[in-house]
UniProtKB/TrEMBL annotation:
Pathway per the UniProt entry: Cofactor biosynthesis; adenosylcobalamin biosynthesis
Annotated TM spans: none
GO BP of this protein: cobalamin biosynthetic process
Protein name: Precorrin-6A reductase
UniProt source species: Aedoeadaptatus ivorii
Pfam families on file: CbiJ (PF02571)
Keyword flag Oxidoreductase: yes
Length: 244
């Protein structure tokens, strides 16, 4: 069975290395998404619209879609699901184990988090990427906002476009362990951490522990509960042991 892996995460890289099915193709949105993939894998780089996905499924003769995108990559997930349905093939979503109960303050949206930040003073360290930076910059006031992002031109451009100074950009490729988080927090001395709860295996727990040990308050943006399959189930699907 030829499968299409929507990648760009450590989960996707681990899956590609472990599955016995080599009749697969991986797509990632940016070059950074190829960093940890095996050299012998067919990888396509670039963002795909729904029409692009439908053409890709037909041209590559894809039989099943396995979605390993980030838990917060809702647009990619919804688009891939629609494309698979239009093509009449199966779609499977990998869901990371949830990690609940973390965060001094928890929010269901970026907008709610931004409203809370408007009332706070001090340095804030963000690990939420670049897509929502403009929303946060709008409530920065006299505070210092520091953003840790992947070192891509696109991410850097988004931050510069909304007025983030170079000194407030940490462009590094993760994953980040406890010690690296502590080192960065001690360097920038933030009072607050704003982060996303991306689930188990994402580095979230190490980051939260580091923030607590550095005396920071944490603002956590939660993702909605998803239905899908765990890692072992996805392996069985790719290898033809389970369908439907």
């Amino acid at each position: 069975m030829k499968v299409w892996i929507l990648g760009g995460t450590a989960d996707a890289s681990r899956f590609v290395r472990k599955t016995k099915n080599r009749d697969l193709v991986v797509t990632v949105a940016t070059e950074e998404g190829t960093e940890f993939l095996p050299a012998d894998i067919d990888v396509r780089v670039g963002r795909l619209s729904e029409a692009d996905m439908c053409r890709f499924i037909a041209d590559a003769q894809i039989e099943a879609v396995l979605d390993f995108t980030h838990p917060f990559a809702k647009v990619a997930t919804h688009t891939a699901k629609r494309a698979a349905a239009a093509a009449g093939i199966s779609y499977y979503r990998y869901v990371r184990p949830r990690v609940d109960g973390f965060g001094d303050m928890r929010f269901s949206s970026y907008a709610d988090c931004a409203r809370a930040l408007k009332e706070m003073t001090g340095t804030v360290f963000f690990t939420t990427g670049s897509n929502e930076a403009a929303r946060f910059q709008a409530v920065r006031g006299e505070n210092r906002f520091v953003y840790r992002i992947i070192p891509s031109e696109e991410s850097l451009h988004k931050l510069k476009a909304c007025g983030v100074e170079t000194a407030d950009i940490v462009a590094m490729l993760g994953p980040f362990d406890y010690e690296m988080n502590v080192a960065l927090f001690r360097h920038y001395r933030p009072a607050y951490l704003v982060t996303k709860n991306s689930g188990e295996g994402s580095g979230f727990c190490d980051k939260m522990r580091a923030a607590a040990d550095c005396g920071m308050r944490t603002l956590v943006i939660e993702t909605e509960v998803e239905s899908g399959y765990d890692f072992e189930e996805m392996l069985k699907i790719a290898e033809g042991d389970r369908r439907g």
